Amino acid sequence: MRAVWRAARAAVRRRRLQTVVIALVTLTSTAAMVVALGLVDAASAPFDKAFDRQRGPHVVAAFDPDKASDEQLERTARQPGVEAAAGPFAQATVELPDDAMNFGLGSQITVVGRPGPSGPVDRVDLWAGRWATGPGEVVLNRQSDWTADDLGKKLQVPSGPDLTVVGFAFDLSRTADAWVAPEQAAALHPTVTQMLFRFTKESQAPDASSEDRLRAELATLTEGLPAGALTASRTYLTLKQQVSSSARAFTPYLMAFGVLGIAVAVLIVANVVSGAVISGFRHIGILKALGFTPGQVVAVYLTMISVPAVLGCALGTVVGNLLARPFFEFVFTGPDAGVFHGSVSVAAWVNAVTLLGVPAVCVLAALAPAVRAHRLPAARAISAGSAPRAGRALHLQRRLAGSRLPRSVSLGVGLPFARPGRSALTLAAVVLGVTTVTFATGLATTMTMLGNAGRDAYQVTVYASSFKHGKEVKPQHGDRELESLLRSLPGAREVTARADDDIRMAGSAQDVMLEGRRGDRLTLGNVLTQGRWMHRAGEVVAGSAFLRQNGLRVGDRIRLEKGDRGEDVVVVGEFMESNARLLVTDWPTVTALSPNEKPIAYHVKLRDGADPAAYARAAKAADSGISPTPTGSNSLTQTIVGSATVLTLMLTVVASLGVFNTVVLNTRDRRRDLGMLKSIGMTPRQVTVMTVTSMAVLGALGSLLGVPLGVAGYEVVVPRMAGAVDLALPPYMTDVWRAPALAGVASAGLAIAVLGALVPARRAARLTIAQVLHNE
Amino acid sequence: MRKEYGETTALDGVSLEIRAGDAVAVMGPSGCGKSTLLNMIAGLDRPTGGSVVVHGENVGELSEKGLALYRRRRIGMIFQFFNLIDDLSALDNVALAAQLTGTPARQARRRALELFDELGIADRRNAYPAVLSGGERQRVAVARALMNRPALLLADEPTGALDSRSGEQVMDLLLDLNQIGQTLILVTHDEHLARRCASRLVEIADGRVTGEHTLEPSA
């Protein structure tokens, strides 16, 4: 065993470059694999994972405190089928002034009196500040990717005491908008008592009847309570449907990247390791001649490969975890995916799989050629490095020799065919690299178009209120005056007023958000996918998600109601929108339902060249009661484009490392040929051209195969992403494969090949001829 | 000329003058520096001190590209182990040397065929190195070395890997070449080869010239 270790150690020392390449490739591949597998895991069931981590309630129930006492409710928690329960908690509905919008809250919020963030059920994530423990303190429910800059501010409650924000906590289950200490809740006039239940596994069968089974379970455990004690309840399945839709949009895309990442990593590792063993055949022969048994020879080679592979794998797992954390935080950010922000991380099984899997792939890849060497007679193994061997692809070489191409180029074109197995593995890596680049380019183009759709419709949004030291400041101008003022400021070109009104649609239990628009540009940059925009009162345009979820189509008539008023309207168009509550109409229609409705914001389109920040400053100076905000970027677009870019770069680097390794091995194998070619007058530049050409051939072939695969991947994934959030993409957004784009992605294969080949090619060009030929 | 590899001195003040048309044999024990001397002349390596001047050109001062062009235009090199490219046919191996200079493929092949005829291996032109005998491989290597009509033909143990009959054939070939005016520098252990092919013998030991003799042509 000592001899095996010594020989392996000597081999590692002698092949420093190869050892470094193996370590580097396993490191990069493992890191890519950790991120890729982590993504697949995080994207596969983000809601379930986050929900389980917070021990979310399967049912949130509200009881009438006059009919069911706290003792009676505590008894329900001990009923069979209940795994755990939290409560009873006093729950109040609190009306807030309009300025609460600044805290991300609506005009009416649910406040629950709760002693702390933890407990057997619904462990909320207190990510900033502390829990409310005394009077006048409140903790707000806010996603952890938002800011905590409102900490310490006061929330004015018209019907109760002012509350100071002492903390921010995130509750995926949305059991409350805010929490106060139980003693404080009494001052907010609670009307119901909240109970949170988790049921045993048997009650959670995820089949179609789960909702019914959960409701049946609730009915059983509230049987003993007085009639009418249970006033409302909500199962977690409704919440899951709401919360998961944006994550569902990410899933196909993240899965595609994850699978590509794993495939590239495995291929490259197999290529590098098998190549290392094959190039050591001569050394194997010498070991045999020295008296090493075939088993010992295999052991030497497996040890030689395992040392850098295990090292690279261990470091790669660490690097992967370090990379994954900020990357996941970046991916799961914003109003859509941000609910999972704090709950996604690399699962333990991912680390276990990579730590065991990558060395296993290495050993398996090394085993096949090592066993071949095991069977090889010593004399043949020794001569493998120097004896003439039958050439490969001779017919092709002959044709190339007679071609008009410069000889360094024609020699390079023929090189990949001399080592078909190695070239095939390298080609596969390049193909996957090009597929990734193509897919990511298409995706980014669509997402950029989606994000940019209507971006030029307005550059500044002016909110019709502002806040100073936590107090609302009203605009000094009335609605029409303010509109005129904004129109008169330097740089203004168009002004469109917008009002949002909560109304009901006859026959539907769900609230509808009716957006009324008035002014120069009623479309406000929304993308119409069907029909037309409204021309007169009584016409509405609906978001695609609204139409799908309500089973409506363009041309249908619906009745909208607000209080005792009602309006019959016709849906004249569909626009791209994932908010399933949104309807857009003109000003007369919205004021017919709500005569006193005032705009909440004015969207201002500026003249070409005007500075949005300067306009915003001028508007604020003209009226301190408004909040002008230059339009920001689209976070979903930013997230997808950003993460796609990071993943693409990562996979491109791994694929380039595969090419790098192939060129290093080929150069090593062909040292004698290179020395000879230089001895008959081949210049260093010609050697570089020949070596780079040999990989450029694989790059070109990789593009030829990878581009259609990437396009196919795009065609499969992108419509599913849009469908997951009930979006219908207009054809111009999916028609991304134009000649310049295709030419661009086709050059990706060449870029990967040239990038990977350049360094070893230049090294090959600098080989000392006398030394190379002398070694023979 | 001096050549050092780290602590080791391979050539220690060697001075030689070789005239056009000369046939010089360099002899000496293993490791004495004779192959190093040949590498310096061929521009495969650079001297540590002194200079190598061929046709008025200081080889040691040339850039990497300049050295490549020098080897391409002025030098033909024959190795002990032939150094043919396994993936190319005999004819393509030979034509390659001309194609590197930009000669069109057809013209290069025509010139290679002439050499194959002259060297008596025309019938083996489409064979690949793996199926050629040692003598045939060395003839292909000679043809390749002559392809660009070099000023200097350098041979490093050209018969070292051949059986005696093939060795004799190669010796005859080198002799014939010299007789038609080809300058030849030959590194060998084989005194018989030296006496057959060379008119002058340079003896080297420990990196120094220890003797120079004029040789009488042998029968």
Automatic annotation (TrEMBL), chain A:
Residue spans crossing the bilayer: 253-278, 299-324, 344-367, 424-444, 640-666, 687-711, 739-759
Membrane topology: Multi-pass membrane protein
InterPro entries per the UniProt record, alphabetical: ABC3_permease_C, MacB_PCD, Macrolide_Exporter_MacB
Any one GO MF annotation of this record: transmembrane transporter activity
Keywords: Cell membrane, Membrane, Transmembrane, Transmembrane helix
Places the protein is found: Cell membrane
MacB-like periplasmic core domain sequence ranges: 423-621
The ABC3 transporter permease C-terminal domain, residue ranges: 256-375, 646-768
UniProt xrefs under Pfam families: FtsX (PF02687), MacB_PCD (PF12704)
Protein family according to the UniProt entry: Belongs to the ABC-4 integral membrane protein family.
Cross-referenced PANTHER family: ABC TRANSPORTER PERMEASE YTRF, MEMBRANE COMPONENT OF TRANSPORTER-RELATED
Name of the protein: FtsX-like permease family protein
TrEMBL record, chain B:
GO MF annotation terms: ATP binding; ATP hydrolysis activity; transmembrane transporter activity
Gene Ontology CC: membrane protein complex; plasma membrane
Keyword line: ATP-binding, Nucleotide-binding, Transport
Residues in ABC transporter domain copies: 1-219
Keyword ATP-binding among UniProt keywords: yes
Top-rank taxon: Bacteria
Nucleotide-binding recorded as keyword: yes
Family matches, as InterPro entries: AAA+_ATPase, ABC_transporter-like_ATP-bd, ABC_transporter-like_CS, ABC_transpr_LolD-like, MacB-like_ATP-bd, P-loop_NTPase
PANTHER family according to UniProt: IMPORT ATP-BINDING PROTEIN
This protein's name: ABC transporter ATP-binding protein
Organism, as annotated: Streptomyces spongiae
